[in-house]
Specification:
The complex is a heterodimer of chains A (130) and B (295).
Chain A lengths: L6 E7 L2 E8 L1 E6 L2 E6 L5 E13 L5 E14 L2 E6 L2 E3 L5 H14 L5 H17 L1
Parallel strand pairs in A: 1-7
Antiparallel strand pairs in A: 1-2, 3-4, 3-5, 5-6, 6-7, 6-8
Chain B lengths: L1 H60 L15 E6 L9 H15 L4 E6 L1 H9 L4 E5 L8 H16 L5 E9 L5 E9 L15 E3 L2 H87 L1
Classes of the chains: A alpha+beta (130), B alpha/beta (295).
Chain lengths: 130, 295
Protein backbone atom coordinates (compact mmCIF):
# COMPACT_ATOMS: atom_id res chain seq x y z
CA UNK A 1 0.00 0.00 0.00
CA UNK A 2 1.39 3.37 -0.98
CA UNK A 3 1.22 6.26 1.45
CA UNK A 4 -1.24 8.99 0.51
CA UNK A 5 1.50 11.41 -0.53
CA UNK A 6 3.36 8.92 -2.66
CA UNK A 7 2.81 8.04 -6.28
CA UNK A 8 4.18 5.44 -8.66
CA UNK A 9 6.93 6.64 -11.01
CA UNK A 10 8.30 4.77 -14.02
CA UNK A 11 11.12 6.16 -16.17
CA UNK A 12 11.79 4.02 -19.20
CA UNK A 13 13.77 4.23 -22.41
CA UNK A 14 13.46 1.85 -25.39
CA UNK A 15 16.15 -0.42 -23.88
CA UNK A 16 14.34 -0.89 -20.58
CA UNK A 17 13.12 0.56 -17.32
CA UNK A 18 15.61 2.99 -15.75
CA UNK A 19 13.71 3.82 -12.58
CA UNK A 20 10.59 2.35 -11.02
CA UNK A 21 9.20 2.99 -7.55
CA UNK A 22 7.08 5.01 -5.15
CA UNK A 23 8.17 8.63 -4.85
CA UNK A 24 6.81 11.86 -3.39
CA UNK A 25 7.96 14.29 -6.08
CA UNK A 26 9.28 14.39 -9.63
CA UNK A 27 10.76 17.54 -11.06
CA UNK A 28 11.58 17.81 -14.77
CA UNK A 29 11.50 20.20 -17.70
CA UNK A 30 8.58 19.91 -20.08
CA UNK A 31 7.88 21.93 -23.23
CA UNK A 32 6.11 24.51 -21.07
CA UNK A 33 8.94 24.91 -18.55
CA UNK A 34 9.85 23.23 -15.27
CA UNK A 35 7.08 21.07 -13.86
CA UNK A 36 6.71 19.22 -10.54
CA UNK A 37 4.57 16.14 -10.11
CA UNK A 38 3.13 15.26 -6.72
CA UNK A 39 0.71 12.55 -5.65
CA UNK A 40 -2.75 13.05 -7.15
CA UNK A 41 -1.50 15.14 -10.09
CA UNK A 42 -4.23 15.78 -12.63
CA UNK A 43 -4.27 13.96 -15.97
CA UNK A 44 -1.45 15.38 -18.05
CA UNK A 45 0.59 14.51 -21.10
CA UNK A 46 3.53 16.57 -22.29
CA UNK A 47 6.76 16.68 -24.20
CA UNK A 48 9.88 16.41 -22.05
CA UNK A 49 13.01 18.34 -22.97
CA UNK A 50 16.57 17.20 -22.35
CA UNK A 51 16.91 17.77 -18.62
CA UNK A 52 18.04 16.48 -15.27
CA UNK A 53 14.95 15.02 -13.59
CA UNK A 54 15.01 15.02 -9.79
CA UNK A 55 13.10 12.35 -7.90
CA UNK A 56 12.40 12.58 -4.16
CA UNK A 57 11.37 9.58 -2.15
CA UNK A 58 9.44 9.43 1.12
CA UNK A 59 12.55 8.71 3.19
CA UNK A 60 14.05 12.04 2.12
CA UNK A 61 16.45 10.52 -0.39
CA UNK A 62 16.69 11.83 -3.91
CA UNK A 63 17.75 10.47 -7.25
CA UNK A 64 18.83 12.37 -10.36
CA UNK A 65 18.05 11.04 -13.81
CA UNK A 66 19.31 12.44 -17.11
CA UNK A 67 16.35 12.42 -19.50
CA UNK A 68 17.17 12.91 -23.19
CA UNK A 69 13.76 14.18 -24.18
CA UNK A 70 10.57 12.20 -24.58
CA UNK A 71 7.04 12.21 -23.24
CA UNK A 72 5.55 12.30 -19.74
CA UNK A 73 2.10 10.99 -18.84
CA UNK A 74 0.45 11.56 -15.47
CA UNK A 75 -2.84 10.20 -14.20
CA UNK A 76 -4.28 7.75 -11.68
CA UNK A 77 -1.52 8.47 -9.15
CA UNK A 78 1.04 7.22 -11.66
CA UNK A 79 3.59 9.14 -13.68
CA UNK A 80 5.45 7.55 -16.55
CA UNK A 81 8.31 9.15 -18.42
CA UNK A 82 8.95 7.55 -21.82
CA UNK A 83 12.33 8.96 -22.72
CA UNK A 84 14.29 8.72 -25.96
CA UNK A 85 17.11 7.82 -23.64
CA UNK A 86 17.55 8.12 -19.89
CA UNK A 87 20.28 7.29 -17.43
CA UNK A 88 20.64 7.46 -13.67
CA UNK A 89 23.10 10.23 -12.81
CA UNK A 90 24.81 7.86 -10.36
CA UNK A 91 25.57 5.38 -13.15
CA UNK A 92 27.28 7.84 -15.50
CA UNK A 93 30.94 7.00 -15.96
CA UNK A 94 33.81 8.66 -17.79
CA UNK A 95 34.18 5.69 -20.12
CA UNK A 96 30.50 5.52 -21.09
CA UNK A 97 30.47 9.28 -21.65
CA UNK A 98 33.51 8.99 -23.92
CA UNK A 99 31.80 6.24 -25.95
CA UNK A 100 28.64 8.31 -26.14
CA UNK A 101 30.60 11.35 -27.36
CA UNK A 102 32.34 9.23 -30.01
CA UNK A 103 29.01 7.84 -31.18
CA UNK A 104 27.60 11.34 -31.39
CA UNK A 105 30.57 12.57 -33.47
CA UNK A 106 30.31 9.58 -35.81
CA UNK A 107 26.61 10.08 -36.39
CA UNK A 108 26.62 13.87 -36.53
CA UNK A 109 26.34 13.95 -40.34
CA UNK A 110 23.19 11.83 -40.29
CA UNK A 111 21.38 13.70 -37.52
CA UNK A 112 18.90 16.47 -38.14
CA UNK A 113 19.56 19.78 -36.34
CA UNK A 114 17.03 19.24 -33.53
CA UNK A 115 18.31 15.73 -32.70
CA UNK A 116 21.94 16.83 -32.90
CA UNK A 117 21.24 19.72 -30.52
CA UNK A 118 19.34 17.47 -28.11
CA UNK A 119 22.17 14.92 -28.12
CA UNK A 120 24.74 17.63 -27.50
CA UNK A 121 22.73 18.96 -24.55
CA UNK A 122 22.52 15.43 -23.16
CA UNK A 123 26.30 15.08 -23.45
CA UNK A 124 26.90 18.44 -21.77
CA UNK A 125 24.53 17.52 -18.96
CA UNK A 126 26.30 14.21 -18.36
CA UNK A 127 29.69 15.91 -18.53
CA UNK A 128 28.60 18.44 -15.90
CA UNK A 129 27.51 15.64 -13.56
CA UNK A 130 30.86 13.87 -13.56
CA UNK B 1 47.09 -51.03 -50.71
CA UNK B 2 44.74 -51.67 -47.72
CA UNK B 3 46.91 -49.74 -45.21
CA UNK B 4 46.66 -46.59 -47.33
CA UNK B 5 42.86 -46.60 -47.29
CA UNK B 6 42.80 -47.04 -43.53
CA UNK B 7 45.18 -44.12 -43.13
CA UNK B 8 43.00 -41.93 -45.36
CA UNK B 9 39.90 -42.81 -43.31
CA UNK B 10 41.73 -42.09 -40.07
CA UNK B 11 42.68 -38.65 -41.41
CA UNK B 12 39.09 -37.98 -42.46
CA UNK B 13 37.76 -38.95 -39.00
CA UNK B 14 40.27 -36.60 -37.39
CA UNK B 15 39.16 -33.78 -39.68
CA UNK B 16 35.43 -34.40 -39.01
CA UNK B 17 36.14 -34.47 -35.26
CA UNK B 18 37.88 -31.11 -35.38
CA UNK B 19 34.98 -29.64 -37.40
CA UNK B 20 32.63 -31.10 -34.80
CA UNK B 21 34.52 -29.29 -32.05
CA UNK B 22 34.07 -25.99 -33.90
CA UNK B 23 30.34 -26.51 -34.54
CA UNK B 24 29.83 -27.53 -30.90
CA UNK B 25 31.60 -24.35 -29.74
CA UNK B 26 29.47 -22.25 -32.10
CA UNK B 27 26.33 -23.96 -30.79
CA UNK B 28 27.27 -23.10 -27.20
CA UNK B 29 28.15 -19.50 -28.08
CA UNK B 30 24.81 -19.07 -29.90
CA UNK B 31 22.96 -20.58 -26.90
CA UNK B 32 24.54 -18.11 -24.49
CA UNK B 33 23.78 -15.20 -26.85
CA UNK B 34 20.12 -16.21 -27.10
CA UNK B 35 19.74 -15.74 -23.35
CA UNK B 36 21.12 -12.19 -23.55
CA UNK B 37 19.07 -11.35 -26.65
CA UNK B 38 15.85 -12.61 -25.05
CA UNK B 39 16.49 -10.61 -21.89
CA UNK B 40 16.92 -7.48 -24.05
CA UNK B 41 13.59 -8.20 -25.77
CA UNK B 42 11.88 -8.56 -22.37
CA UNK B 43 13.52 -5.35 -21.07
CA UNK B 44 12.32 -3.38 -24.11
CA UNK B 45 8.69 -4.50 -23.80
CA UNK B 46 7.44 -2.12 -21.04
CA UNK B 47 8.45 0.97 -23.02
CA UNK B 48 6.72 -0.21 -26.19
CA UNK B 49 3.62 -1.32 -24.26
CA UNK B 50 3.29 2.02 -22.47
CA UNK B 51 4.00 4.01 -25.62
CA UNK B 52 1.45 1.99 -27.55
CA UNK B 53 -1.19 2.52 -24.83
CA UNK B 54 -0.46 6.25 -24.79
CA UNK B 55 -0.75 6.44 -28.58
CA UNK B 56 -4.16 4.71 -28.41
CA UNK B 57 -5.29 7.09 -25.71
CA UNK B 58 -4.19 10.16 -27.66
CA UNK B 59 -5.73 8.83 -30.85
CA UNK B 60 -9.05 8.25 -29.11
CA UNK B 61 -8.94 11.76 -27.67
CA UNK B 62 -8.63 13.36 -31.09
CA UNK B 63 -10.98 11.55 -33.46
CA UNK B 64 -10.77 14.28 -36.10
CA UNK B 65 -7.00 14.65 -36.19
CA UNK B 66 -4.93 12.81 -38.78
CA UNK B 67 -1.43 12.47 -37.35
CA UNK B 68 1.55 12.85 -39.69
CA UNK B 69 2.51 9.20 -39.50
CA UNK B 70 -0.97 7.87 -40.20
CA UNK B 71 -1.41 9.57 -43.57
CA UNK B 72 -1.15 8.00 -46.99
CA UNK B 73 1.58 9.05 -49.42
CA UNK B 74 1.71 8.43 -53.16
CA UNK B 75 5.33 7.48 -53.76
CA UNK B 76 7.05 4.13 -53.68
CA UNK B 77 6.89 1.73 -50.74
CA UNK B 78 10.11 1.30 -48.79
CA UNK B 79 11.04 -2.16 -47.58
CA UNK B 80 13.73 -2.81 -45.00
CA UNK B 81 15.14 -6.34 -45.36
CA UNK B 82 16.90 -7.59 -42.23
CA UNK B 83 19.38 -10.47 -42.50
CA UNK B 84 22.51 -11.50 -40.62
CA UNK B 85 26.07 -10.43 -41.37
CA UNK B 86 27.24 -14.04 -41.35
CA UNK B 87 26.00 -17.40 -42.56
CA UNK B 88 25.96 -20.77 -40.78
CA UNK B 89 22.45 -20.16 -39.49
CA UNK B 90 20.33 -22.52 -41.58
CA UNK B 91 17.71 -20.86 -43.76
CA UNK B 92 17.57 -17.67 -41.63
CA UNK B 93 18.99 -15.45 -44.40
CA UNK B 94 17.44 -17.18 -47.38
CA UNK B 95 13.96 -17.08 -45.79
CA UNK B 96 14.14 -13.27 -45.51
CA UNK B 97 15.38 -12.95 -49.08
CA UNK B 98 12.60 -15.23 -50.37
CA UNK B 99 10.03 -13.16 -48.46
CA UNK B 100 11.48 -10.00 -50.04
CA UNK B 101 11.13 -11.56 -53.51
CA UNK B 102 7.49 -12.45 -52.77
CA UNK B 103 6.87 -8.92 -51.46
CA UNK B 104 8.28 -7.31 -54.61
CA UNK B 105 6.32 -9.68 -56.85
CA UNK B 106 3.03 -8.87 -55.11
CA UNK B 107 3.51 -5.14 -54.45
CA UNK B 108 1.26 -2.89 -56.54
CA UNK B 109 3.62 0.06 -55.95
CA UNK B 110 7.28 0.45 -56.89
CA UNK B 111 9.54 -0.74 -54.11
CA UNK B 112 12.58 1.01 -52.61
CA UNK B 113 14.98 -1.18 -50.69
CA UNK B 114 16.99 -0.64 -47.54
CA UNK B 115 19.28 -3.53 -46.64
CA UNK B 116 20.37 -4.53 -43.15
CA UNK B 117 23.06 -7.22 -42.93
CA UNK B 118 25.90 -8.34 -45.20
CA UNK B 119 24.02 -11.37 -46.49
CA UNK B 120 21.27 -9.31 -48.11
CA UNK B 121 23.90 -6.86 -49.38
CA UNK B 122 25.58 -9.73 -51.23
CA UNK B 123 22.23 -10.79 -52.67
CA UNK B 124 21.39 -7.25 -53.83
CA UNK B 125 24.81 -6.82 -55.42
CA UNK B 126 24.60 -10.15 -57.21
CA UNK B 127 21.08 -9.45 -58.51
CA UNK B 128 21.94 -5.78 -59.27
CA UNK B 129 19.17 -4.41 -57.03
CA UNK B 130 19.54 -0.68 -56.34
CA UNK B 131 19.34 -0.04 -52.62
CA UNK B 132 18.59 3.32 -51.00
CA UNK B 133 20.89 2.55 -48.05
CA UNK B 134 22.77 -0.44 -46.71
CA UNK B 135 23.56 -0.97 -43.02
CA UNK B 136 25.90 -3.68 -41.74
CA UNK B 137 26.96 -4.77 -38.24
CA UNK B 138 23.50 -3.98 -36.87
CA UNK B 139 22.02 -7.30 -35.85
CA UNK B 140 24.95 -8.44 -33.69
CA UNK B 141 24.01 -5.85 -31.09
CA UNK B 142 21.08 -3.64 -32.15
CA UNK B 143 20.79 -0.25 -30.44
CA UNK B 144 18.11 2.43 -30.47
CA UNK B 145 20.58 4.80 -32.15
CA UNK B 146 21.05 2.36 -35.01
CA UNK B 147 17.30 1.78 -35.30
CA UNK B 148 16.72 5.55 -35.44
CA UNK B 149 19.55 6.05 -37.95
CA UNK B 150 17.98 3.49 -40.30
CA UNK B 151 14.41 4.65 -39.83
CA UNK B 152 14.55 8.46 -39.46
CA UNK B 153 15.30 9.28 -43.11
CA UNK B 154 12.35 7.08 -44.13
CA UNK B 155 10.10 8.71 -41.51
CA UNK B 156 10.98 12.16 -42.85
CA UNK B 157 10.35 11.11 -46.43
CA UNK B 158 7.02 9.53 -45.44
CA UNK B 159 5.93 12.73 -43.68
CA UNK B 160 6.86 14.79 -46.73
CA UNK B 161 4.72 12.48 -48.89
CA UNK B 162 7.60 10.90 -50.85
CA UNK B 163 6.86 7.38 -49.60
CA UNK B 164 3.55 5.56 -49.41
CA UNK B 165 4.67 3.28 -46.60
CA UNK B 166 7.46 1.37 -44.90
CA UNK B 167 7.52 -2.40 -44.33
CA UNK B 168 10.11 -4.47 -42.51
CA UNK B 169 10.93 -8.04 -43.52
CA UNK B 170 12.64 -9.75 -40.60
CA UNK B 171 12.62 -12.88 -38.47
CA UNK B 172 10.34 -12.81 -35.45
CA UNK B 173 11.42 -14.71 -32.38
CA UNK B 174 8.68 -16.81 -30.78
CA UNK B 175 10.85 -19.33 -28.94
CA UNK B 176 14.22 -21.00 -29.29
CA UNK B 177 12.59 -23.58 -31.55
CA UNK B 178 10.25 -21.27 -33.46
CA UNK B 179 11.26 -18.26 -35.55
CA UNK B 180 9.29 -17.00 -38.51
CA UNK B 181 10.15 -14.55 -41.25
CA UNK B 182 7.37 -11.99 -41.35
CA UNK B 183 6.42 -8.66 -42.87
CA UNK B 184 5.64 -5.86 -40.42
CA UNK B 185 4.15 -2.65 -41.70
CA UNK B 186 5.62 0.28 -39.78
CA UNK B 187 4.12 3.12 -41.82
CA UNK B 188 1.44 4.30 -42.06
CA UNK B 189 1.09 3.69 -38.32
CA UNK B 190 -1.91 1.69 -37.23
CA UNK B 191 -3.03 2.60 -33.74
CA UNK B 192 -6.30 1.19 -32.46
CA UNK B 193 -8.40 3.86 -30.69
CA UNK B 194 -9.80 1.41 -28.18
CA UNK B 195 -10.15 3.85 -25.31
CA UNK B 196 -13.17 5.45 -26.91
CA UNK B 197 -13.02 8.84 -25.18
CA UNK B 198 -15.05 11.59 -26.79
CA UNK B 199 -12.45 14.31 -26.28
CA UNK B 200 -9.25 15.10 -24.47
CA UNK B 201 -9.64 14.56 -20.74
CA UNK B 202 -6.12 15.66 -19.87
CA UNK B 203 -3.96 18.73 -20.09
CA UNK B 204 -1.36 18.59 -22.88
CA UNK B 205 1.86 20.51 -23.54
CA UNK B 206 2.63 21.97 -26.04
CA UNK B 207 -0.55 20.61 -27.76
CA UNK B 208 -2.28 17.25 -28.07
CA UNK B 209 -1.53 17.21 -31.79
CA UNK B 210 2.16 17.91 -31.19
CA UNK B 211 2.44 15.27 -28.48
CA UNK B 212 0.56 12.74 -30.64
CA UNK B 213 3.02 13.19 -33.50
CA UNK B 214 5.97 12.88 -31.11
CA UNK B 215 4.53 9.76 -29.48
CA UNK B 216 3.86 8.10 -32.83
CA UNK B 217 7.38 8.87 -33.97
CA UNK B 218 8.89 7.37 -30.82
CA UNK B 219 6.47 4.43 -31.08
CA UNK B 220 7.60 3.57 -34.63
CA UNK B 221 11.29 3.76 -33.67
CA UNK B 222 10.60 1.57 -30.60
CA UNK B 223 8.70 -0.94 -32.74
CA UNK B 224 11.54 -1.12 -35.26
CA UNK B 225 14.08 -1.45 -32.45
CA UNK B 226 11.99 -4.33 -31.06
CA UNK B 227 12.04 -6.00 -34.49
CA UNK B 228 15.83 -5.70 -34.64
CA UNK B 229 16.12 -7.24 -31.17
CA UNK B 230 13.87 -10.12 -32.23
CA UNK B 231 15.86 -10.58 -35.44
CA UNK B 232 19.07 -10.80 -33.39
CA UNK B 233 17.54 -13.41 -31.06
CA UNK B 234 16.12 -15.34 -34.03
CA UNK B 235 19.55 -15.32 -35.71
CA UNK B 236 21.23 -16.78 -32.61
CA UNK B 237 18.45 -19.39 -32.27
CA UNK B 238 18.75 -20.33 -35.96
CA UNK B 239 22.53 -20.59 -35.61
CA UNK B 240 22.21 -22.74 -32.51
CA UNK B 241 19.84 -25.14 -34.30
CA UNK B 242 22.03 -25.24 -37.43
CA UNK B 243 25.17 -25.88 -35.39
CA UNK B 244 23.45 -28.55 -33.30
CA UNK B 245 22.41 -30.33 -36.50
CA UNK B 246 25.95 -29.98 -37.85
CA UNK B 247 27.39 -31.42 -34.62
CA UNK B 248 24.91 -34.34 -34.71
CA UNK B 249 25.72 -34.98 -38.36
CA UNK B 250 29.44 -34.90 -37.60
CA UNK B 251 28.96 -37.46 -34.79
CA UNK B 252 27.02 -39.68 -37.16
CA UNK B 253 29.67 -39.33 -39.84
CA UNK B 254 32.44 -40.20 -37.37
CA UNK B 255 30.50 -43.35 -36.38
CA UNK B 256 30.04 -44.39 -40.01
CA UNK B 257 33.67 -43.66 -40.94
CA UNK B 258 34.94 -45.55 -37.87
CA UNK B 259 32.82 -48.53 -38.85
CA UNK B 260 34.16 -48.43 -42.42
CA UNK B 261 37.71 -47.99 -41.14
CA UNK B 262 37.38 -50.99 -38.82
CA UNK B 263 36.02 -53.08 -41.65
CA UNK B 264 38.91 -52.04 -43.90
CA UNK B 265 41.39 -52.85 -41.17
CA UNK B 266 39.72 -56.21 -40.53
CA UNK B 267 39.75 -56.94 -44.26
CA UNK B 268 43.44 -56.11 -44.37
CA UNK B 269 44.12 -58.45 -41.44
CA UNK B 270 42.00 -61.20 -43.02
CA UNK B 271 43.83 -60.75 -46.33
CA UNK B 272 47.18 -60.93 -44.58
CA UNK B 273 46.18 -64.09 -42.67
CA UNK B 274 44.85 -65.65 -45.87
CA UNK B 275 48.09 -64.81 -47.63
CA UNK B 276 50.17 -66.28 -44.79
CA UNK B 277 48.04 -69.42 -44.65
CA UNK B 278 48.12 -69.70 -48.44
CA UNK B 279 51.88 -69.14 -48.45
CA UNK B 280 52.42 -71.72 -45.69
CA UNK B 281 50.24 -74.23 -47.50
CA UNK B 282 52.18 -73.70 -50.73
CA UNK B 283 55.45 -74.04 -48.85
CA UNK B 284 54.27 -77.27 -47.22
CA UNK B 285 53.22 -78.72 -50.56
CA UNK B 286 56.56 -77.77 -52.09
CA UNK B 287 58.45 -79.34 -49.15
CA UNK B 288 56.38 -82.58 -49.39
CA UNK B 289 57.00 -82.78 -53.10
CA UNK B 290 60.76 -82.33 -52.60
CA UNK B 291 60.83 -85.04 -49.89
CA UNK B 292 58.82 -87.46 -52.15
CA UNK B 293 61.19 -86.84 -55.05
CA UNK B 294 64.22 -87.52 -52.89
CA UNK B 295 62.73 -90.88 -51.75
Amino acid sequence: MSEAHEFELVVANPEGVVFEGLVVQLLLRSAGGDIAFLAGHGPYVGEVEVCLAVVQSADGGSEQIVVDGGVVRAGGNRVIVLARDAELASSIEQESLRRRRERYETRLQELDDATAEAELRGLELRGALL
Amino acid sequence: MPGGRERALRGRIKSVNSTKKITKAMELIAASRIVKAVSRISAARPYYREMSALASELRASLPGYAPLLMGEGNGPHAVIVVTADRGLCGNYNSAAIREYERFVASSPEPVEVVGVGRKVETYFKYHKVDTVRQFNNVTQYPTVDLAAAILNPLLNRFISGELSGVTVISSRFYSVGVQRTERTRLLPVEVPDTVGASGPDFEAEPSIEGVTDLVLRQLVVAEFFGLLLEAAAAEHAARQTAMKNATDNASELVKTLTRVMNRVRQDAITTEITEIVGGAEALRKTTRKKVGDER
